[in-house]
Automatic annotation (TrEMBL):
It comes from the Bacteria. Residues 1-80 form the TfoX C-terminal domain. InterPro entries: TfoX-like, TfoX_C. This is TfoX C-terminal domain-containing protein. It comes from Pseudomonas graminis. It holds the Pfam family TfoX_C.
């Protein structure tokens, strides 16, 4: 099976399986939701995703390795996640 999500930077078999389980099947689906909402969709389905998934999704959407995201940028994603979902899972 050819899966376009597997062709994106940072996304491996497990993360893609989680995305599929969350109803995200294409790059267009991921772009439409964005990293924050896609991360939350995975968590809501009970997967114990760490913040590395959030950063990997953001890196995939910007076509760069997640490790190249600056700490400041990661902090801004964390803040955006907290603001989008107060009291939510994801404080790992």
């Amino acid at each position: 099976m050819d899966d376009e999500l597997l062709g994106m930077k940072n996304l491996g078999k497990t993360s893609v399986q989680w995305l599929h389980a969350a109803g995200i099947h294409t790059i267009a689906d991921l772009r439409r939701l964005g990293a924050i909402q896609a991360y939350r969709a995975v968590q809501v389905r009970g997967f114990r995703a760490s913040k590395a998934l959030l950063y990997s999704l953001e890196g995939a959407l910007s076509n760069r390795p997640w490790s190249e995201l600056s700490q400041e940028y990661k902090d801004s994603l964390d803040t955006e996640l907290r603001n989008a979902c107060p009291g939510a899972i994801g404080e790992r």
